[in-house]
TrEMBL record, chain A:
Residues 193-212 are annotated as: Disordered. Pfam families: CS (PF04969). CDD domains: p23_DYX1C1_like. InterPro entries: CS_dom (IPR007052), CS_DYX1C1 (IPR037894), Dynein_assembly_factor_4 (IPR052004), HSP20-like_chaperone (IPR008978), TPR-like_helical_dom_sf (IPR011990), TPR_rpt (IPR019734). This is Dynein axonemal assembly factor 4. Residues 105-165 form a coiled coil. SMART domains: TPR. The keyword Plastid does not apply. The lineage of its organism: Eukaryota, Metazoa, Chordata, Craniata, Vertebrata. GO terms for molecular function: nuclear estrogen receptor binding. GO terms for biological process: determination of left/right symmetry; epithelial cilium movement involved in extracellular fluid movement; heart development; inner dynein arm assembly; nervous system development; outer dynein arm assembly. It is found in: Cell projection, Neuron projection; Dynein axonemal particle; Nucleus. Residues 3-87 form the CS domain. PROSITE patterns: CS, TPR.
TrEMBL record, chain B:
InterPro entries: WD40/YVTN_repeat-like_dom_sf (IPR015943), WD40_PAC1 (IPR020472), WD40_repeat_dom_sf (IPR036322), WD40_rpt (IPR001680). Transmembrane segments: none annotated. The lineage of its organism: Eukaryota, Metazoa, Chordata, Craniata, Vertebrata. Key assembly factor specifically required for the stability of axonemal dynein heavy chains in cytoplasm. WD repeats lie at residues 135-157. It comes from the Eukaryota. It holds the Pfam family WD40. It is found in: Dynein axonemal particle. The keyword Repeat applies. SUPFAM superfamilies: WD40 repeat-like. One of its GO terms (cellular component) is dynein axonemal particle. The keyword Metal-binding does not apply. This is Dynein axonemal assembly factor 10.
């Protein structure tokens, strides 16, 4: 149940009503006051003040002043008349209710209208602002264009002026070209008048555009003395050659051609491969230190291959592979041994493994890849799988088109294939 | 068109644009005149030389000369002002010097290289500098040869790879340091990023370095002074400015580098009237105008007491995009400050005016 505030006091004039409402200590904000044409309510929970006014008031212009623990209302009457009392005396409950609701509705409508009006004005303001900015920008743009135009015209004018100077200068230049000896010079506006004949020594300091071949002029550093200068020119230089070296690079391609990423990958892979030691320590314990080094074993294998001891070489390579199965050269060389031993399938296997390990394909491992292809090709051919062999030879040729032996062998294989096709 | 209109910044104004019916590889102003030359290659595989004159707002074709082989580059650098003969290098490796008044027979001709002459430069002519007029050509066959027009058939200097060395294309050459009759230096840039400086007085390699990306263009700021600055441009939008006054025994020349745009920088040209201003042209059809500022101290002593150079800084004055195709050639007029011509691969040649260079 709200607590009614009833200690209000009021007085009136013909056009206004002044109502003072003490608040009993409650604090009021504008949100607590609700006023419509004929209904006034102040609700500060738990306090409540309500008044159905005697006559309608102009609620838009009326004011409420909050301060000093009370609210002071200044209500302007719609019709100037003296009220008998502040509120309607005989107001039964239903009427009160109806009036309240009405008041609220009216207030709502008004609020809505106000927002609509505000929106419309806002739109108009926006449009206006936009137009104004557009105009400003147009003006700015025009100003810039004008500046540019002015520059352009100024510069064109200057150019024309300069050109005319050139043209006059050229007129003089053409005279000696035609081989005329006497030189008549028309006085130019921009230069001092000067008459020149053969006997007179030309003045120094004239403009650069004058080019006259002179006779008998004294040596000077200006362009008039071109003839004299020629005699002073040094003889042609003694011929010499300077040899140059170009910047060496690990990969001899310029940055734009380089396949740096792949080359890096290859280098990285090689470095990794070197570090791997897949060891079966138990078996290898009785080996000497150097025998555990795959490189040393590879060298040993190479020596044995050179001497013809293919089995020994294979053994060496096998051990090396057991120690480090990522080195492509081991497989490559083992494939060569198997070829010699006519273990053709093993040769093919090893060359394939070598090729696998020789990715990515870069300039560094070209030689190795060519060898691998050739060895595999040979093995295929010896197994009479000529088409596969030809494929490998062609791959080798693609990597290294200049090797004549590979070309010859490829040709031979092609003939063989054609021969067998014809006969079968 | 130009970027912002700052009150003091130079503007690049496009004055004339001329569409051509052939690919233009090089464009050059004829000294002491308002005429310019365009050199290039027609679709039928012949070389074209066109002479235009600037008339108001348009270019008037004065003369067209057709030659059997496409022409890649040309220079007026080694002729006298009266003669103004054009030296050209063509796709076949021939160096020819033409008198444009009588272009049927060349004044000088030699088959200098086995492959296309990529770049040519001349020194000693035009009343600039001293010493004998000489022409240097750099070719795809990896050699750089210096020619004297008074000596037929053999070059006066030949910079070639050592026997057995794989050759790299030479993309650009430039003369420099020609401040008296004996001194002369040739700088060559190669496609693997090598820059080599040859001293012609001692006939030796004076300095070399590698800037990783292929060198498209090198130029000294002035040919006829004690070498001061060298700008080298490369692929991938970088260029390096070397301070050539102080050479350190191991570290060479100090440099500052700048990455201007994503694409190749095809050409660099210094303004003839101000050696600290230069323009670079790019593969995206843009031109950048730069100014070099010297450092407070151009050289200092390093830890061992050797002199070493200090590079300054480069600032961008203006940039403008004119075309969608690379601007492959650029030339400032030696007579009018700010007038320049550029030729692009969209078969147009443009005459531009750069304003406010006085205030730079």
């Amino acid at each position: 149940m709200p607590v009614w505030l009833r200690e209000h006091s009021w007085r009136q004039t013909l056009s206004a009503v002044y109502l003072s409402l003490p608040l009993r200590g409650a604090r009021a904000t504008p949100a607590n006051i609700f006023c419509s044409e004929q209904y006034l309510k102040v609700s500060i929970p738990p306090f409540l003040f309500e008044a159905i006014l005697y006559a309608p008031i102009d609620d838009t212009n009326s004011t409420a002043k909050i301060g000093n623990g009370s609210i002071f209302f200044t209500l302007y009457k719609k019709e100037p008349a003296m009220w008998d009392s502040l509120t309607l005396a005989n107001a039964d409950k239903e009427k009160l209710q109806y009036l309240r609701e009405n008041a609220v509705l009216k207030a709502h409508e008004k609020a809505k209208e106000e927002t609509e009006a505000k929106k419309v004005t806002k739109q108009e303001h926006k449009k206006y602002a936009l137009k104004a900015t557009m105009k400003l920008e147009e003006a700015e743009r025009k100003r810039i264009e004008d500046l540019k135009e002015k520059e352009r015209q100024k510069v064109t004018k200057e150019l024309e002026l300069w050109k005319n100077q050139q043209r006059d200068g050229d007129k003089y230049k053409s005279i000696p070209k035609k081989g005329e000896l006497h030189q008549e010079i028309e006085p130019l506006k921009e230069r001092k008048t000067e008459k020149m004949n053969k006997t007179q020594i030309p003045k120094e300091g004239t403009s650069k555009t004058r080019l006259k071949s002179t006779k008998g002029c004294h040596a000077s550093s200006c362009i008039f003395s071109e003839n004299l200068k020629e005699e002073q020119l040094p003889a042609p230089r003694a011929a010499a050659t300077i040899k140059v070296n170009f910047t060496p690079r690990v990969f001899p391609t310029a940055l734009r051609e380089s396949r740096v990423a792949e080359e890096e990958e290859w280098l990285h892979k090689q470095a990794e491969a070197r570090r791997i030691i897949n060891s079966d320590l138990s078996e290898l314990e009785d080996l000497k230190e150097e025998e555990k080094n795959p490189d040393w074993l590879k060298d040993k294998g190479n020596k044995m291959f050179a001497m013809g001891d293919y089995l020994g070489a294979v053994n060496a390579y096998n051990l090396a592979v057991r120690l480090n199965n990522q080195l492509p050269l081991l497989y490559l060389n083992r494939a060569a041994c198997h070829l010699k031993l006519r273990n053709l399938h093993k040769a093919i296997e090893d060359s394939s493994k070598a090729l696998e390990l020789l990715t990515p394909a870069v300039a560094e491992n070209e030689r190795a890849r060519v060898k691998a292809h050739v060895r595999r090709g040979t093995a295929f051919c010896q197994l009479q799988l000529y088409t596969e062999g030809l494929q490998d030879y062609e791959a080798a040729l693609k990597i290294d088109p200049r090797d004549k032996n590979i070309e010859k062998d490829a040709e031979k294989i092609r003939h063989l294939i054609q021969g067998t096709m014809q006969s079968s | 068109m130009s970027a912002a209109v700052g009150a003091e910044r130079p503007q690049v104004v496009s004055h004339v644009q001329q569409a051509l019916s052939y690919t233009v590889f090089d464009c050059k102003w004829v000294p002491r005149s308002a005429r310019l030359l365009c050199l290039g290659s027609a679709a039928r595989g012949t070389g074209i030389v066109q002479l235009y004159e600037l008339h108001g707002a348009r270019l008037e074709l004065l003369r067209e000369i057709e030659k059997p082989k496409p022409i890649k580059c040309g220079t007026f650098g080694a002729t006298s002002l009266q003669q103004r003969y054009l030296a050209t290098g063509d796709f076949d490796g021939n160096l020819n010097i033409w008198n444009l008044e009588a272009p049927e027979i060349p004044v000088y001709s030699v088959k200098g290289h086995k492959e296309i002459i990529n770049s040519i430069d001349g020194v000693g002519g035009l009343g600039i500098g001293e010493g004998a007029p000489e022409i240097v050509t750099g070719s795809r066959d990896g050699t750089v040869k210096v020619w004297d027009p008074r000596q037929n058939d053999t070059p006066v200097a030949n910079m070639e790879p050592v026997q057995g060395e794989s050759k790299r294309d030479c993309w650009t050459v430039a003369f420099g340091n020609a401040y008296n009759q004996e001194e002369r230096v040739v700088c060559a840039g190669y496609d693997n990023g090598d820059i080599k400086l040859f001293d012609l007085k001692t006939m030796s390699l004076r300095w070399e370095t590698n800037i990783k990306n292929g060198v498209c263009s090198v130029e000294f700021d002035r040919k006829d002074i004690n070498m001061n600055k060298l700008v080298a441009t490369s692929l991938e939008g970088k260029f390096h400015v070397f301070d050539m006054r102080t050479q350190h025994p191991t570290k060479g020349f100090a440099s500052v580098s700048e990455k201007a745009q994503k694409s190749t920088i095809w050409q660099v040209r210094h303004l003839p009237q101000n050696r600290d201003v230069f323009m670079t042209s790019g593969g995206s059809g843009s031109l950048h105008l730069w100014k070099y500022e010297y450092p407070a101290q151009r050289s200092r002593k390093d830890s061992e007491g050797c002199e070493m150079g200090v590079a300054g800084s480069v600032s961008l004055l203006q940039n403008v995009t004119l075309s969608t195709q690379p601007i492959s050639s650029l030339d400032w007029s030696p007579d009018k400050k700010g007038l320049c011509v550029c030729g692009a691969f969209d078969q147009t040649v443009r005459v531009l005016i750069v304003t406010k260079l006085n205030k730079v």
